[in-house]
Amino acid sequence: MTKSQTVNPNSARLLSLDFFRGATVAAMILVNNPGSWGHIYAPLEHAEWNGCTPTDLVFPFFLFIVGVSIAYAMGSKKEDPAIHSKIILKAFKRALILFGLGLFLSLFPKVFTDPVDAFQHVRIPGVLQRIAVVFFIASILFLKNSEKNIFRILILILAVYWALMTFVPVPGTGYANLEKETNLGAWLDRSLLTEAHLWKSAKTWDPEGILSTLPAIATGLFGVLVGAYLRRKDRDAATKVTWLFCAGTAAIFLGLLWDLQFPINKALWTSSYVLYTGGLATMILALCYWIIDVQQYNKFTRPFVVYGVNAITVFFLSGLIPRILNMIKLNRADGSEISLQTWLYAPYTEYFSPINASLAWAISFVLFWLIILWIMYNRKIIIKV
Fold first, then answer.
1. Per-residue DSSP letters for 308-376?
2. Residues 6+ apart with CB under 8 A from 145
3. Which string of DSSP letters, residue by residue, matches 113-130?
4. Where is the signal peptide, in residue numbers (predicted)?
5. Local structure of 234: helix, strand or coil
6. DSSP bridge partners of 329
7. pLDDT band at 6 (very low <50, low <70, confident <90, very high)
8. How many helices (H) and strands (E) does the chain have?
């Protein structure tokens, strides 16, 4: 028996998947927590509009991983329709918790100081909210459909979204377009959510808006298909990796080709963006799978695995802690007040240039959580949301 045949396709967890998830959430925390939003290296910023930076890969990679995880967590239960209702109910409860955590981050800390205003202006869309919706819908589609049907649904979603965004005239504008404030998705967000409940940096559109959640579901289904393929018993590991690299390359090529007419755009979550990022995620996971699970080179994985097994927990807390640090005020010698976060960041600005101080703070934040998560991992503390 060759080494490529020793991997158990029905294993509940893939070490490579935990590694990929951990690396993704660590990158998410890195880009979300610079010392200064005015001083950030270009690769750690989102593209201004069209295009794709390394930072624009983080969120779709996570949704892709959600899809792969669905295939592994529910794959053995899919063949028993009698328990589907129980699984869907469990998925619904988990989605509600994720959505609620996202809303809490949007409300905090104002919900404790001015609750009326907090709820009147709470941002309803968000990262955790989108994860919740994608997880729930992708779970149902996985349980109730064959892999071929899931593939057809994925293609249909991408085609319908492309048609809506490029052919349907936008009310009030009169023509279809892909601009920030006048595209169909932005109009729908303003119509259903009103400006009070949208992304505060724009107020007229939201990068996690209603319509763009549709192709985000396709990203989750992309991961579902890859996870289902990895679980197959009739393929050895080498064959799986080869086909995944081929599929990933094809998706990237098609995404770049479609980009010529429907630009790769994270904020709009365009169909070309789904193919491009899904292809890259497929190739990265295939490489991790081959190196870590098949060839068993895994001594380097621990720092990211500890992030991966508590991914949602650390993402939520890493969004909460900076808000708390900004709430805590310290008195200066001159009688003025500064936040604890500003006080902690001050030494970085003394020893580094502004942009390097900002990066050093972000790296320190990632390392801080690494220590916490390492302790949790050693004590077998895994908080399942």
1. HTTHHHHHHHHHHHHHHHHH-EEE-TTS-EEEHHHHHHHHHHHHS-HHHHHHHHHHHHHHHHHHHHHHH
2. 153
3. H-HHHHHHS-----HHHH
4. none
5. coil
6. 339
7. very low
8. 15, 2
Single-letter amino acid code for the residue at 269: W
Residues in Cβ contact with 376 at an 8 Å cutoff, skipping those fewer than 6 apart? 306, 310, 382
The domain tally of the chain equals: 1
What's the rounded Cα separation, in Å, for the pair 281 and 68?
Answer: 11
Question: Are 27 and 37 a contacting pair, CB within 8 Å?
Answer: no
Please answer whether residues 358 and 40 qualify as being in contact, where contact means their C-beta atoms are separated by less than 8 angstroms.
yes
**Residue 5: predicted pLDDT:** 41
Q: Measured between alpha carbons, how far apart are the two ends of the chain, in Å?
A: 39
CA 251, CA 249: separation in Å to the nearest integer? 5
Range of the domain at 86: 3-299
pLDDT at 344: 95
Cis peptide before 109 (omega within 30 of 0): yes
Which amino acid, residue 24? T
* CA 31 to chain centroid: 12
Token representation of residue 233? 């018993």
In a domain? residue 342: no
Quote the percentage of the chain above a pLDDT of 70: 97
pTM: 0.94
The answer to the question of residue 379 being in a domain is: no
Nearest to 13 by CA among 280, 281, 308: 308
The reply to whether 186 falls in a domain is yes
| Lookup result for tokens 């319908």 | 160
